[in-house]
Amino acid sequence: MVSMNVILRLLRVEQWYKNLVVFLALFFTDNLLNLPLLERSIFGFISLCLMSSSYYILNDIEDRGKDKLHPEKKKRPIASGEVGVKTALAASAVCFLLSILTAYVLSIKFLIFPILLFISATLYNNGLKNVAFVDIHVIAVNFLIRAVGGAAAINVAASVWLVTSVFFLALLLALSKRRTELSLLGKDAVKHKEIYKIYSDKILDELILLVSAILLIAYSFYTFMAHPDGYMMLTIPFATFIVFRYLYLSAINHVAARKTQLLFTDAQILAAFILWLIASFIILYMM
Fold first, then answer.
1. Which pLDDT tens digit goes with each residue over 73-129?
2. How far, in Å, CA of 208 to CA of 178, rounded?
């Protein structure tokens, strides 16, 4: 009997936070307190989480050989032998079907987004992850799919600059993960990912700075248009602080730069994010 802890690790529940992006459209269109739309967003979130788990499992099956040699990934259920391949395939299929069913119940319009996410992730796992620069773009596109899918779930138009910000934020996270992973693996990096034949500390550092600048510009443009009186511009300092602090954590190879789910264990980023969230709520819902 497989324990609940192993099942949760197999599904990579700790990675579900990425799908919280679907709530951006709800929040930034002043609909957070609209219960019917909140319910639709929750269904969208569940659908994308299930689809994420489906392709995470398939990825772990394919990479189980390399994962056994990785200092951290060797502890994953499939690589460690806690879960057999047939059991994992069955779990992936169940997650896929439940995701499709949930999306269908929500709307035909939304159904395309978990399917697109699965196709993108499958292409990534079957070759694109080994193509430098394409790999990080596919990761960022997956976040785009989630963001636009969140808008489709509640039938509103996606904000161009907000979606652009999501794209470059995802690029930044992907680049920082590559940077810290390269430092962690050292000379053995190429054994785990072919892309490290091309990626170097220098090129990754330069790209991280470039993408960070574009991210802040895109977010600033969003704030100019998010509120009729321009009050959302008051949130820019919180955003810049979060980015600067994250760049520092990446530069010192902090574990949070490699495992984004641990980002809020940093007290300064957590405090800045909470203040940004409170300020955004007050501006959008009370002013």
1. 777 778 877 777 888 888 889 999 999 999 999 999 999 999 999 999 999 888 888
2. 10
Helices 108-125 and 134-153: angle between axes, nearest 10 degrees: 170
Domain 1-158: give its CATH superfamily: UbiA prenyltransferase (1.10.357.140)
By the 10 Å C-beta count (0-12 exposed, 13-18 middle, 19+ buried), 73 is classed as middle
Cβ–Cβ under 8 Å, residues 28 and 284 = yes
Residues 6+ apart with CB under 8 A from 8: none
Q: Is the pTM of this model over 0.85?
A: yes
Cα angle 38-153-279, degrees, rounded to a multiple of 5: 50
What DSSP letter does each residue of the chain carry, written as one string? ---HHHHHHHHTGGGGGGGGGGHHHHHHTT-TT-HHHHHHHHHHHHHHHHHHHHHHHHHHHHTHHHHTTSTTGGGSHHHHTSS-HHHHHHHHHHHHHHHHHHHHHH-HHHHHHHHHHHHHHHHHHTTGGGSTTHHHHHHHHHHHHHHHHHHHHTT-PPPHHHHHHHHHHHHHHHHHHHHHHHHHHGGGHHHH-GGGGT--HHHHHHHHHHHHHHHHHHHHHHHHHHSTT-GGGGGHHHHHHHHHHHHHHHHTT-HHHH-GGGGGGSHHHHHHHHHHHHHHHHHHHH-
Contact in structure between 156 and 110 (CB atoms under 8 Å): no
Task: Return the structure tokens found at 248.
Answer: 């520092």
pLDDT of residue 184: 75
What pLDDT is stored for residue 1 in this prediction? Answer: 63
CA-only gyration radius of the chain, Å:
19
**Which two tokens mark 96?**
């896929």
Q: Could you give the residue range(s) of every CATH 1.10.357.140 domain in the chain?
A: 1-158
